[in-house]
Every structure is written in structure tokens, then in C-alpha cells.
Design brief:
Elements (H helix, E strand, L loop, with lengths): L1 H22 L12 E3 L4 H14 L5 E3 L5 E6 L8 H15 L13 H4 E4 L8 E3 H13 L11 E7 L2 E2 L2 E4 L2 E7 L4 E6 L15 H16 L11 E11 L2 E15 L2 E8 L5 E7 L5
Parallel strand pairs: 8-11
Antiparallel strand pairs: 1-12, 2-3, 3-10, 4-5, 4-6, 6-9, 7-8, 9-10, 11-12, 12-13, 13-14
């Protein structure tokens, strides 16, 4: 009888030990160099890059920032009229000349009529529209007398988003172009990122990420959403974060959850480390 008890206890302890061993198996390390990082250039690095930039630059108002990407202001012809054709021609010319200093890879081919977005919150419900529809709306509003002959004084804002990087979905940065008719200039800001390490596989699975996201949601909202976790939606994407002046590109599971009727939560969990890289909330947008 005592022998049976001994073996029963022995096998129970052995089972618990095995379970602990299984749970404590370390995750594999992420790939060397991950996440991809863009750092502020040293003075000597910046000087070398600026020398290359000045060889092709034709505008005094353009400079390189601390990371070696171009920004600044270029002049417009005082007689230029801001039309769809004018914008497409000028943006194409800028991209052709300066793409290497805007973070755009040589293999990128643009379809600007569909990719270049116009931003105008008062003209479209969500602010963004394709360039063709934008100028069509401008014309309609002008015909209706909306501008009161002030069309030549407004600022036109256009945006070129980096939606993919090396074939992977990217909630990435944008190149912004602000055409200011009042002083006849184009202000250029923002950049893309040309290089990134894309992990070959995801160390943290979708199931594990749901658990991580649930804990973050509980921490941030105080709501236990475990019973509704089946309603969480997620997909894989690259994102950027600024970490002590270093720009890091992380591959994340983007988890969306509706915490309550008017609270929408977004959790970004690194596929390699399981860390929550970014979290934010939104309420209803009332227009």
C-alpha cells in the first residue's frame, strides 16, 4: 500500500516537473539585426550623404534631416495653375530626381493617379480622396460659388503612403506635399524606409498574441474581454516606432477589439518578442 502511494506521488511530481519543463522552454531568438533600425547619422556620415545629395539637388530650399532624408521647400512658377495634371507632373518630377533621398527603393514603380491622395477634411468624410476626385470636387464647389473667388489662396495637401515594404503590409510613413498657392511653393516632408528585415516566421502565434492582447486590454481599460476574445480581429503588418531617436521597424500582430460600444482598442504585438509595441484607443468619430 505504501509502495503504491509512493509511486502515485512520484508520478504526480514527475508529471508536474515535465509540465513545468515544457512551459519553460525558451522561445527562439529573433533574426540577427531585427528590428531594422534607422539612426541619426554621425556628422561624417551626414557630410558624405549631403555631398551626394548636392550633386543632384537644384533647389536651395531643400536639405537633409538628421537621418539623411530630404525635406524643405521648392518654388512654383508664379503663373502656374494648380490642376490635377500640374500636381502629377511635379510630383513625378520630384520623385524621379530625389527618390534615393526620400527612402524610395529603385524598384518601386508608382501609379500616382491612384496612389497620390489628397487631404481635405471639409471636402470628404474621412479627409482623404484620390487626386482625380479631389479636383473634381474643387471644380464643383467653385461652380457653386463656395470659394467666393478665393480658390487661388487655399493650400492643397497631398500624401504618398508607404503601404507595403518588400511585399509585406506596412502601416508605414508618408511623404507629404503641401502646395501653397498664396506664396507659390511646395513644402515636402516625411519619407519612406527602403530596407527592412522581414522575419521568416512568427515566433509568437496568433493564439499566444490573443492572450497577450487580452492582458494589455485588461490593464488599460479595466475590462475583462476574455469571453469575447473570439471577436478580436488581427493581421500581420510592419509598423514604425521612435525609440530614443532611433526609428525601429517591427513586424507585429495588429489586434483590434471593441472594448465597449464607443471604445475601440488597437494592440500591436511583436511577432518575434511578444512585446506590446504600440497601443491606442479610439471612440466614435462624429462628423
Amino acid at each position: 500500500m505504501e509502495t503504491q502511494k509512493f509511486f502515485a506521488v512520484f508520478f504526480l511530481v514527475l508529471a508536474l516537473f515535465s509540465a513545468c519543463q515544457k512551459e519553460s522552454i525558451p522561445k527562439p531568438l529573433s533574426e540577427p539585426g531585427y528590428p531594422s533600425t534607422y539612426e541619426i547619422l554621425s556628422q561624417s556620415e551626414w557630410n558624405v550623404r549631403n555631398d551626394d545629395f548636392q550633386k543632384i539637388n537644384i533647389y536651395d530650399g531643400l536639405t537633409l534631416n538628421d537621418y539623411g532624408f530630404m525635406n524643405g521647400i521648392i518654388p512654383l512658377n508664379v503663373n502656374d495653375s494648380i490642376t490635377e495634371e500640374f500636381v502629377l507632373k511635379n510630383v513625378d518630377s520630384i520623385l524621379m530626381r530625389y527618390r534615393n533621398f526620400m527612402g524610395i527603393s529603385d524598384d518601386i514603380i508608382f501609379d500616382l493617379e491612384n496612389q497620390l491622395l489628397a487631404y481635405s477634411l471639409f471636402m470628404t468624410p474621412f479627409g482623404f480622396d484620390n487626386i482625380r476626385d479631389y479636383f473634381s470636387h474643387l471644380k464643383e464647389l467653385g461652380t457653386e460659388g463656395f470659394w467666393n473667388n478665393n480658390l487661388e489662396t487655399i493650400t492643397h495637401n497631398f500624401q504618398l503612403n508607404q503601404n507595403r515594404i518588400e511585399g509585406e503590409k506596412f502601416l508605414g510613413p508618408s511623404i507629404d506635399l503641401e502646395l501653397r498657392t498664396l506664396d507659390n511653393t511646395i513644402k515636402i516632408s516625411g519619407n519612406w524606409y527602403p530596407n527592412v528585415i522581414i522575419p521568416e516566421f512568427q515566433i509568437y502565434s496568433e493564439e499566444e498574441v490573443i492572450g497577450i492582447a487580452h492582458r494589455k486590454l485588461l490593464e488599460k481599460t479595466g475590462l475583462n474581454l476574455w469571453e469575447t476574445k473570439h471577436k478580436f480581429s488581427l493581421y500581420k503588418t510592419m509598423i514604425t516606432i521612435n525609440n530614443n531617436s532611433e526609428i525601429e521597424l517591427h513586424e507585429c500582430w495588429r489586434v483590434f477589439a471593441q472594448a465597449k460600444e464607443d471604445l475601440f482598442c488597437y494592440v500591436f504585438v511583436d511577432t518575434q518578442t511578444g512585446d506590446v509595441i504600440k497601443y491606442y484607443e479610439r471612440g466614435w468619430i462624429y462628423l
